[in-house]
Amino acid sequence: MNAEELLQRYAAGERDFTGIKLPRVRLLDVNLSRAIFREADLSNASLDWADLSYADLSYANLRGAYLGEASLGEASLGGANLEGADLSGVVCGQTSFKNANLSHGNLRRAILTETYFKNANLSHADLRGASYFSINSCKGATFNETIMPDGSIRSDGI
Length: 158
What we know:
1 helix
């Protein structure tokens, strides 16, 4: 499957793309809200400005992906691999993980400029080496044995 076929199937009402393999796919400024990408390979994908709100990306491989200014509010990213992903929102907005579940997620070395985690679940997430992480962007977030960018462990809600 390629990007065009995925978008056609989504437009036709299909939402379940569990296990799909689309490394390096370019899906810029697309609406994929409520899509199911469980265990999908979207490594090194370009998903800038994408609407992935309410999407299920549990255990997806998003290593090295570009998600600048994407909307991931209410998304499920439990166990997802976001290592080295660029999640920055520096052009004219922000990347939002508002109310998202990132528990057990791998965000090592992710770029988090203007990335917001309001009310997000970051329990057991690994943020080691993540750049530009701001605790101020985590109002109401849940931390339970979360590995912070400096390697310290945090367990509390903000």
